[in-house]
Amino acid sequence: MTEQADPDKASPDVEAVFRNGTITAFGITLSFSLGFLAQWASSPGVWRFYDGPPAAAIILGSILQIWALALLLPVEGLARPVYDRSRRLYLAGLILTGCGVFGAVIADLVSALAR
User: Which residues cross the membrane (predicted)?
Assistant: First the structure.
């Protein structure tokens, strides 16, 4: 008699302590992303057309980070496939947010040098 491989046993769950640390890290970096966006949006300067793409990248990246965090919060976040999916979403969001921040800095630098 041969044993069938149980798909649920193929990928062990993530330990709760490890997931909790990941949730903390996701939350801290998400707060920095949202904080940067809030600070930038409330600055007294005039928005220019070149501010649009970096702002869109930061907003979309932050949405992906929020989505990744939301996947980890329920108990199902301990399942390895859910954890891996949230990790990929988070990294994509972090990269996109970082590109937006660097894009905004470069756009401001180019704008300042052109004056």
Answer: 21-42, 54-77, 89-114
